[in-house]
Fold:
Amino acid sequence: MKSYDFIVVGSGIAGLSFALRACKHGSVAIITKKEAVNSNTAWAQGGIACVQSDEDSFDRHVADTLDAGAGLCPEDVVRAIVSEGPDAIDELIHWGVEFDGRENGDGIPELDLGREGGHTKRRILHSKDTTGREIETKLLAAVHESENIDLLEHHFAIDLITTAKLGFASSVRCVGIYALNEETGKVRTLRSDRVILCTGGSGRVYLYTTNPKVATGDGVAMAWRAGAEIANMEFVQFHPTCLYHHEVKSFLITEAMRGEGAKLVDKDGKDFVTAYDERGSLAPRDIVARAIDREIKRTGNPCVFLDITHQPKAFIAERFPNIYETCLRLGINAATDPIPVVPAAHYQCGGVRTNVDGRTSLPGLWAVGEVACTGLHGANRLASNSLLEGVVVSRRALVDVLKTLPADRTTERLLLPEWESGEVTDVDELVVIYHNWDEIRRLMWDYVSIVRTTKRLQRAATRLQNLRREVQEFYWNFRVTPELLELRNLVEVATLIVDCAARRKESRGAHCTLDYPETDDRKWLKDTILSRF
Ligand code: SIN
Structure:
């Protein structure tokens, strides 16, 4: 057993920024299941939303966030996060992150601010179209320089250890974590009274997603099994513009392109989104994604197109080099051809329920970033608010963690039991794991995606129940592997999404059901909260 003052699970912006601050107060372990650079953060293209110009204001950013969130964002949470943005940006810059700049009319350098859907002002700080990669590499470099941080790569967090699991009747709290060392195959016991989940989202629960392979909802599933409350999982945000191509499946075409005037058009070049919302291609994401979904279903065409050909080639290649080059390699010249796109699962607006300091309902456990549900995103996240949330709430969480020690300090001296694997053998039926994995992703896409119905949700729930039983059987009978652990988490998270979606009998934000097409503020202006106890 090894003890740390803080255990951080996950290596995106939330986890790394928490660790960089926490290491000044004690020892930190960062557990991450692949190489640390494999995170949702590293894939973020657009940028980080933050008020930075005199033409903008916190009030406007708050209003835009509330508007996108469709009535479910608590204003105090939004205001706290938005108004602490500039200080958090200064910290990122201090850690070495470079955002694109330009000269203003008087030749004075200033930040080049982009615009995305739902924002009434330019306020997106970016680094070309690879902002996440810039943040990830700079924060990781700072972590590597810190002596007080153990970066445990290829460690898969299996489960949280709680006093309840250890058989203590009183004061349930989190006291550590079991993690599979993927290189040795051994399970390690890591001890801490302060565990911070920063594991990102669960896009991989869907067949089509903009998320990297690591996004399998591990944090939500672990927190749920440990007894923490989960909220608003029905609000899965679908990004309107994932590249439609038979070779490249999860490549995002950033919304920032629409901020630079790109329009969504049909195969004849006609702008169809304005018929759904007067803001057209720059309307909030839920509206645009549904418009595309309807257009595809109505016409039978496999995709729609994003047209940025009004911009000069030099501008596209300079501002969006990653997209321009990737498309060119696939035979699409964005300067002359509209880019084929489809919506795909992109962001989990719900998650482990926390306050604005990342504190969960389970003492000793905090959650920050996409894994968490602070309420900032309400029923539909405003573009580029997520990196902001990660870096601001991780700061607030550290302040909270430092003032929250267990009332009963005896848990600090607890000797935690080692992991018991019993008489299990290696999984001999990997094919079954892959089959179940595919089945979950396909059924979630077919039954629980952009537009839902009660009947489809019921079908999904029944299938998931069976799959869950099978996966549990595997889990208890075989030696754990990363594939099996991901499958176990995936089926758990899929079940939570379906459960939340079935409870919400209205349409709001990212949750749209044909059986309850209206928004019903009288009954449903509230979070969907799941609790095991
Ligand atoms: C994008 O670049 O379109 C993604 C930004 C986001 O999801 O916040």
About this structure: The chain has a mean pLDDT of 94. The longest strand covers residues 339-348. The first helix runs from residue 13 to 22.
